[in-house]
Amino acid sequence: MKLFDVWSVLLFSAIFRVLLILYGEWQDTHMEVRYTDVDYLVFSDAASLMASGDSPFKRTTYRYSPLLAFLLIPNSIVHRSWGKFLFSAGDLLVGLFIHTILKQRKVPEDLCIYSVMVWLLNPFTFTIGTRGNCEPIVCAMILWIIICLMSGNVFQAALWYGLVVHFRIYPIVYALPIILVLDPRFVRSGLKPLLLNWSALGKAPQRSTKVTHPYNVWTALRGIFTRGRIMFGLVSGTVFLSCTVFFFYLYEWEFLHEALLYHLTRTDPRHNFSIYFYNIYLHSEHEFSLMEKLISFLPQFILQLVVIFCFAQDLPFCLFVQTVAFITFNKVITAQYFVWFFSLLPLILPWTKMKLKWEGLCCILLWMGAQIHWLMWGYLLEFKDTAPYFNNKSMQIPAMLINLSE
Amino acid sequence: MGTSIYHKLRVLFILCFATGFSSSIVVQSLKQYIMKSYFEKYECLIDSNFQHFIAHQLPYALCEVVVPNAVRFSVLKRRLIGEGSHRHLSSSIGFHIKPEFPFHFCEVVIVERLPSGVFADPFELQHLHRRGVFGDIAVFGDTNLELPSFLSNRSAVEIHIDVVGSNVVLRDENELEINIELPLHARYLPLDDSGYSTVEFGDPDLFMRCNIEATLTNQVCLFTPTRDRAESKAGTIMWKIPSGKKAHSGVVFIVTFISAISTTLLIVLASLFCSDIDIRKDLKKS
């Protein structure tokens, strides 16, 4: 029995988000602790600088694309909450896109709606958007790229991919699986890659095509440089480079250093979810040796390759596992990074054989417990001075293991 | 040992001279800030340079008309409020102004030279300024909020308070008391074997800028009020901040990388066995 459709879930979520934004306004004016994310204030300051013709990078700690500041210019003209509405709209779009992708993969409607609810009613995600974090926009762009690929619109997918990599660098890790999924063996008419369709649990899943024809070096090489792949590479590369050149022309090295290079070289010695943080802090008085840098980079690199190699044919699943692996072994992890894979989780949930009761519930509780446990030590260290760094550090390894085992 | 000292000196040199961006974030730039003049002359905040600057380079010349000991002050109370890495430095300063001091308008200028390892967030102060908690307030020096203390320079906060204002309590016509609570944050400190490092706060530097009747053109005069040491009750303020232990370096390095590598291997194996690629079959064939 269908209790509600996707539109009523979206409407409820929209009303709820508007109420949260209004509540945030009230809390900001009446309480010392703000509801608004501190990054939102950074974006807003950068936007107001841009509105007055200045560089957004004059706002220290603004380390994003100038496009973000541009999107938030109405913050200083219309209302300071403009950006929150924009990010929450992105948040709702993610919900809608989850539904679209699952419908295209022939997932039954009730499962589609449950999956949409996993995103829209997740306390973690609805607070991220309404507090003014830009991640929902990035998530919406990534899901839209998947939709474009599924509909065979490689050109549009490439346009958005170039843009999203410019906007936030981390989706660069999705380049290889996207290129692989554009394999002519899996692409049917109209450059439409076949993805795994849903089938009832217990039945064998309908994997796409099996390769039966003989395969030699020439066909392999010819297979690598297909029209779709070349177009995707060229278009996305052109969009990324055009954005970079354009903003370099406007804001010069400041842009390149703050919005791009900073993220590639970032090692944060302050406590965060990363297993590397304490090691970075303990060694921050001297330069890391090449060997140390290599050891910390290798797990991320190897995992990306292995995951792509193993799961590239199921693009949403591959992107999800890639994101989890990328975040888990990153040198800096903040809570907002979790949103990156939360948006991909509903895309793989209908295929899970795990029952919510009790296996699923155990996983959710274990994950939450690990994060809360870590946060407790973080809180004691930062707000009470009572927890030594070592405790904080030792809690990160179980948290990481749980994160991975889920 | 020698390498370590060389390294520290090199870092200090780079910080003070090479980067040369000792920034200042002025919440409201209408007033003339003392620390702005200081940082125009010096790259870093160093106590000896500051004392020299106050003694020889501040424009005291216009203040000859000032009645001797016209304004006396004493630090009544000074303490750190709160716990953890985010605290408030609360100061209560009492002033005694002689009745014969002919001023139209006065403002008290407080300069808090923050010790290394502690910083004030200029954007937080801006927020408090907008909410009317502070009047004119600015942070000078290294305002990069993210750097650990050994990679950052010291900074100073300059607060301007009108003698009639919300932070000021008039005890009687000639006595007034100023109360301020400055939000401060701890940086990540250099490693210490005890697991804690202590930073020490000095006394604030106080100045007065007054519009004096007796001068020919009602000039604005900047001067240092006399400190009433007998009445000052403030002692040294210490802030014990957690820091990393050098002894942990080896263990943490090994544990971090063993767990990273072993979990990576586990995921690699799990991925290979869970994917459609039939490794067992391939292995048998080979």
UniProtKB/TrEMBL annotation, chain A:
<feature type="transmembrane region" description="Helical">
    <location>
        <begin position="333"/>
        <end position="352"/>
    </location>
</feature>
<dbReference type="GO" id="GO:0004376">
    <property type="term" value="F:GPI mannosyltransferase activity"/>
</dbReference>
<keyword id="KW-0808">Transferase</keyword>
<keyword id="KW-0328">Glycosyltransferase</keyword>
<dbReference type="GO" id="GO:1990529">
    <property type="term" value="C:glycosylphosphatidylinositol-mannosyltransferase I complex"/>
</dbReference>
<feature type="transmembrane region" description="Helical">
    <location>
        <begin position="358"/>
        <end position="381"/>
    </location>
</feature>
<comment type="function">
    <text>Catalytic subunit of the glycosylphosphatidylinositol-mannosyltransferase I complex which catalyzes the transfer of the first mannose, via an alpha-1,4 bond from a dolichol-phosphate-mannose (Dol-P-Man) to the glucosaminyl acyl phosphatidylinositol (GlcN-(acyl)PI) intermediate to generate alpha-D-Man-(1-&gt;4)-alpha-D-GlcN-(1-&gt;6)-(1-radyl,2-acyl-sn-glycero-3-phospho)-2-acyl-inositol and participates in the sixth step of the glycosylphosphatidylinositol-anchor biosynthesis.</text>
</comment>
<keyword id="KW-0472">Membrane</keyword>
<feature type="transmembrane region" description="Helical">
    <location>
        <begin position="301"/>
        <end position="321"/>
    </location>
</feature>
<feature type="transmembrane region" description="Helical">
    <location>
        <begin position="230"/>
        <end position="251"/>
    </location>
</feature>
<keyword id="KW-1133">Transmembrane helix</keyword>
<keyword id="KW-0337">GPI-anchor biosynthesis</keyword>
<keyword id="KW-0812">Transmembrane</keyword>
<comment type="pathway">
    <text>Glycolipid biosynthesis; glycosylphosphatidylinositol-anchor biosynthesis.</text>
</comment>
<dbReference type="GO" id="GO:0006506">
    <property type="term" value="P:GPI anchor biosynthetic process"/>
</dbReference>
<feature type="transmembrane region" description="Helical">
    <location>
        <begin position="169"/>
        <end position="187"/>
    </location>
</feature>
<comment type="similarity">
    <text>Belongs to the PIGM family.</text>
</comment>
<feature type="transmembrane region" description="Helical">
    <location>
        <begin position="6"/>
        <end position="24"/>
    </location>
</feature>
<dbReference type="GO" id="GO:0005789">
    <property type="term" value="C:endoplasmic reticulum membrane"/>
</dbReference>
<dbReference type="Pfam" id="PF05007">
    <property type="entry name" value="Mannosyl_trans"/>
</dbReference>
<dbReference type="InterPro" id="IPR007704">
    <property type="entry name" value="PIG-M"/>
</dbReference>
<dbReference type="GO" id="GO:0051751">
    <property type="term" value="F:alpha-1,4-mannosyltransferase activity"/>
</dbReference>
From TrEMBL, chain B:
<dbReference type="InterPro" id="IPR013233">
    <property type="entry name" value="PIG-X/PBN1"/>
</dbReference>
<keyword id="KW-0256">Endoplasmic reticulum</keyword>
<keyword id="KW-0812">Transmembrane</keyword>
<feature type="transmembrane region" description="Helical">
    <location>
        <begin position="250"/>
        <end position="274"/>
    </location>
</feature>
<keyword id="KW-0337">GPI-anchor biosynthesis</keyword>
<dbReference type="GO" id="GO:0006506">
    <property type="term" value="P:GPI anchor biosynthetic process"/>
</dbReference>
<comment type="pathway">
    <text>Glycolipid biosynthesis; glycosylphosphatidylinositol-anchor biosynthesis.</text>
</comment>
<keyword id="KW-1133">Transmembrane helix</keyword>
<dbReference type="InterPro" id="IPR040039">
    <property type="entry name" value="PIGX"/>
</dbReference>
<keyword id="KW-0472">Membrane</keyword>
<feature type="signal peptide">
    <location>
        <begin position="1"/>
        <end position="24"/>
    </location>
</feature>
<protein>
    <submittedName>
        <fullName>PIG-X domain-containing protein</fullName>
    </submittedName>
</protein>
<keyword id="KW-0325">Glycoprotein</keyword>
<keyword id="KW-0732">Signal</keyword>
<dbReference type="Pfam" id="PF08320">
    <property type="entry name" value="PIG-X"/>
</dbReference>
<dbReference type="GO" id="GO:0005789">
    <property type="term" value="C:endoplasmic reticulum membrane"/>
</dbReference>
<comment type="similarity">
    <text>Belongs to the PIGX family.</text>
</comment>
